[in-house]
Amino acid sequence: MSQKAQNNKAWWLVMPVVILVAFNAVIPLMTVVNYSVQETFGDNVFFYEGLKWFGQVLHSERFHEALGRQFLFTGIVLLIEIPLGVAIALAMPRKGIGVSICLVLMSLPLLIPWNVVGAMWNIFALPDIGLLGKTLNAMGFDYNYTRQPFSAWATVVAMDVWHWTSLVVLLAYAGLTAIPEDYFQAARIDGASAWSVFRYIQLPKMKRVLTIAILLRFMDSFMIYTEPFVLTGGGPGNTTTFLSIDLVKMALGQFDLGPAAAMSIIYFLIILLVSWLFYTFTMRNEN
User: Fold this and answer.
1) What pTM, to 2 d.p., does this model score?
2) Is 251 among the domain residues?
3) From CA 42, how far away is CA 69, in angstroms rounded?
4) Separation of alpha carbons 202 and 214, rounded Å
5) Which residue range is the domain that position 158 belongs to?
6) How many Å apart are CA 48 and CA 12, to the nearest integer?
7) Which of 133, 184, 273, 281 is buried most deeply by CB count within 10 Å?
8) Residue 91 — pLDDT band, cuts 50, 70, 90?
9) Among 96, 81, 87, 98, which Cα is nearest to 176's?
């Protein structure tokens, strides 16, 4: 009983974090909720509109197109980054100086700020002077991410894969190194193949870390803004105008604060719902 009381008291240690999160998240969220039910024409004068903006956003073809592009982008990067990250983690050494070298190399892309990543790839992929663009054109490919929708999409996806696959690698590697050696010794005695070891030992033991990796990558890729905005500005046309970019254009470019606030709340609820459904489905058989 005394041990239980001591554990309960320990929760007071997280109160400063709770207060900080409330100040930095809940209060701005309430401000957005306030804007989502009102209209303003400047001079700090507001008019109550109810749920009008939510209906307008949900029935907007512009919103549906941006949401479709967002889901497509997130699906593509997850299908590439998760298997690729696991494959790299499996290929990394478990002992020796190679471990430190690989971990440092894998960490480097994660240390680069998002706007710098976009600027780097902007220069790297230029069709006339960029190393990537000039090389692809010299090889006979018609590549120009500033004019061709497919090239723009391929460049944005490649940029995200380069930037964030390392996160999946590090999480998967941590899960692999946490597996007791006894499992592998038993597999060797039984003559299990490499595929059997992966399917029945490594993959089940990585389930939790892979769930975290997928959730983190889903949320981050679904909210991506800085990198594609710096690289393509949402173009050519609206080809890479993801939901986040469209939201910023509406809020700051058009100054439609009411619809933008409603869209941001819908945006938040979509991320929350998909994350909850995925986590619930993945962990439904866990004890």
Assistant:
1) 0.87
2) no
3) 33
4) 17
5) 70-246+273-282
6) 40
7) 133
8) very high
9) 87
